Amino acid sequence: MKENKISLPVFGLFIGVSLIVSTYLLATILKDAIPSNQVVKVRGVANEILELKHASWDINIKVLEDELEKAYFKASKATEEVLKYLQDSGISKDVIEVSGFSQRRVTRTVYEGKNNNRREIFMGHEVKRKIIMAKTSDLDLLGRIYKKFSGDLQRRKVPASPQAPYFFSDIDTAKLKKRLLEKASKNAFMRAKIIAENSESQIGALRAARQGDFTGISYNGKIGSSSRLHRVTSLVTIDYSLK
């Protein structure tokens, strides 16, 4: 009986130690088997500044006259003067297009008397036309002409108003997007690594990746701007586990 009394405490101790060891081993196995809930979410950004190589330019001609025939005559004369000005300035006629005429009857609504009676006042016949340079690559020449165009034509009393040039690129946007995504992904990993090192952790597996928007690229994949230098940006969001 004395020996049994001694063996029971020993047996109990053995069972307790066994439970502790088995619990530790099980926790270690589960830790390795189940992904950690510690996740770092980072954003990666990539930018490129593109120099746009081409431009389009529109010049609007608009005439308002009492007589429709006179309005057409003035619009035709203005077209000839603008075309001559452009060609004399060094623009090739091969890059110039001329639209057809459009015309409308212009009126102004007034309200008169105590009853606010409505009356339409005839203002004239408006005739419009557009001169278009769909694509030119001599951007320096275009810039010089655009700067002095309005002043020169106003002095000649030519009814023509230029729009701002629109610059664009023929670059392969599919390749550009791929390059930007690669740069943005590397940027995200570097940021995650800095965070992990500062928290005495290590970067684990990639948990999730979400592609953000590309700014500077239109919905149809075109690149264009009112400036010759154009920024294109890619943004990605990536989740990494920490270990």
According to CATH, the fold-level topology of the largest domain is Alpha-Beta Plaits
Give start-end ranges of low-pLDDT stretches: 1-6, 8-36
Number of helices: 4
- How many independent structural domains? 3
Sum up the overall morphology in one term: elongated
> How much strand content do the residues show?
35-45%
Order of helices and strands: HEEHEEEHEEHEEE
> Which radius of gyration do the C-alpha atoms yield?
37 Å
Explain what this protein looks like in three dimensions.
There is one protein chain. The protein has 243 residues and is α+β, with helices and mostly antiparallel strands. It folds into three domains: 1-34; 36-51 and 171-242, Protein of unknown function (DUF541), domain 1 (Translation Initiation Factor IF3), CATH 3.30.110.170; 55-165, Protein of unknown function (DUF541), domain 2 (Alpha-Beta Plaits, 2-Layer Sandwich). The chain is built from four helices and ten strands. Strands 2, 3, 4, 5, 6, 7 and 9 form a seven-stranded antiparallel beta sheet that branches. A hairpin with a 4-residue loop joins β4 (102-112) and β5. The longest helix has 32 residues, at 2-33. It is elongated. The two termini are 54 Å apart. The relative contact order is 0.21.
